[in-house]
Specification:
alpha/beta; 16% strand
Amino acid sequence: MAAEKQPRLGVAFLAYNEEELIAKTVQEAVTSLSQVPGLDWRVVVVNDGSRDKTGAIADGLAKKDSRVLVVHHDGNKGYAVATETALRSTPGEVVMVVDGDGQHTMADAPLFLEAIDRGADVVFCWKKVRHDPLGRKILSRGLRILSHWILGSPLHDINAGCRAFRGDIARLIEIKHRINFVGDEIFARCRIAGWKVSEVVVRHFPREAGQSIHRPWKMAGTIVRVVRYLFDLREEIARADALKRVVAAR
């Protein structure tokens, strides 16, 4: 039996307790993607064990539109696991993984498709003008500086909540570290595998409801864990580079 043809684009929204926003987020995506000429697309909601009505709302949207799919976790697994579920479960020649809080518009999806068409394997977004609280801006800037220093990342917004992957690569990336800042590990996996990373400037909108999982007052207690995580990733990159040198020398 021939494999089912993949849509050109699959967009996965990560959602945890987003009952006030998930319908608007999905409907905006449906409207924006439908306006892209000739684009075959699917939308997947990854409901990460929400304790509110997020799952039920998403199921209702899927019943009304066959292009909308829902994957439910049987409990809150966390951002890293939800991202991995999105990468494995979303159909598409190109797969986008996006926070389900309505702060991104899928009218920007063509920018990611164009970057992939130009040869990128993974594309990060850059919220050049961002509408985040001051604490979140400080955290993001700090992580960017640490990621540049420890991992050599050239990215401006390594932990932003919108990324695109070539479909075959989306199904290969393994996220081993169970921490919310998955962008650094995705970058590290790309470095190790030799995949080309790019970034595009996107629009960003204020969060209209709900709460971010990244809360500044909690970060003080996890800063040591974050730095250790980045150094662990650097060590993984170094080991992979050393192995490549050994293989090349044979």
